[in-house]
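Lecture notes, continued. The same structure-token format from the folding unit now serves as the input rather than the output. Read the line below as a description of shape only.
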């Protein structure tokens, strides 16, 4: 194999290695984000349930006319 071809092959292998590392880094970030989204979704659902409970136990608003009527 010629030196030029060997050099090109080595550059391609290095390029692929860098791309593999970038893909692994991005995958790690995506997994962390998925966990955070899942945690926040659970928290939002819990807060939504609490809000519905509070609304169910609140007295109905009075239908009074304002004093200027």
């Amino acid at each position: 194999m010629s030196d030029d071809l060997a050099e090109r092959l080595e550059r391609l292998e290095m390029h692929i290695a860098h791309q593999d590392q970038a893909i692994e880094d991005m995958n790690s970030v995506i997994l962390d984000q998925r966990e955070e989204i899942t945690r926040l979704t659970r928290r939002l659902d819990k807060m939504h349930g609490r809000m519905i409970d509070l609304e169910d136990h609140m007295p109905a608003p009075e239908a009074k006319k304002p004093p200027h009527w």
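Point for the exam: The two ends are 98 Å apart (CA to CA).
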